[in-house]
Amino acid sequence: MIEQFMDQIVENVKAERTKRGISQLALAQILGHKSPNYVAKIETRKHDVSYNLEHLYRIAYEFGLEVRDLIPSIENSK
């Protein structure tokens, strides 16, 4: 259940990132990293790395969204 919830957050961020034409490198820089590898690890969900609340705040701020726009409802993650 939690894995589906986390997967949906990753998918929501990725969809917003690609919709805006933002590269993994650009997103990594928004999050304070110098390499796109960090975002790639999150997006593949294979390395036990996830976005945290600070990340979601920074992404929402840069994308002109609310943090809640990136988080699925619990009902949708069942």
UniProtKB/TrEMBL annotation:
GO molecular function: DNA binding
PROSITE patterns named among the record's database cross-references: HTH_CROC1 (PS50943)
InterPro entries in UniProt: Cro/C1-type_HTH, Lambda_DNA-bd_dom_sf
SMART domains: HTH_XRE (SM00530)
CDD domains linked to this entry: HTH_XRE
HTH cro/C1-type domain: residues covered: 13-70
Pfam family, one: HTH_3
Name this protein carries in UniProt: HTH cro/C1-type domain-containing protein
Native source species: Sulfurospirillum halorespirans DSM 13726
Organism ancestry: Bacteria, Pseudomonadati, Campylobacterota, Epsilonproteobacteria, Campylobacterales
